[in-house]
Design brief:
Layout: H1 2-9, E1 15-16, E2 27-31, H2 39-47, E3 54-55, E4 71-75, H3 80-95
Antiparallel strand pairs: 1-2, 2-4, 3-4
Helix pairs in contact: 1-3
Amino acid sequence: RRKLFRDAIRGTILQPDAFSQDSLLSVEWVRLTEVFRSDLELAHYFQKRDLTLLPGRNFYWAHQEDPQVMNVRFSLLKPKQHFVDALQSLRSGLED
């Protein structure tokens, strides 16, 4: 699923975060680039397109001094068809 996800965002404004290249977590950490100014801005953008992502800022709750506002998380553990449909929505949303 991680490969499918990375293939879906390849060539877009979203890039896998460097520290997650070899991750075994059930989420994919993605670094925002120039178009969106924060994780909440991107979350709102996709919410209007019926796609939910997880803002990065709430993940490291113990590190208030360094919120991850330029990262978002995407779940990789959805049922297969739901996951594939979400990837299509994601790609479509990034092409709008």
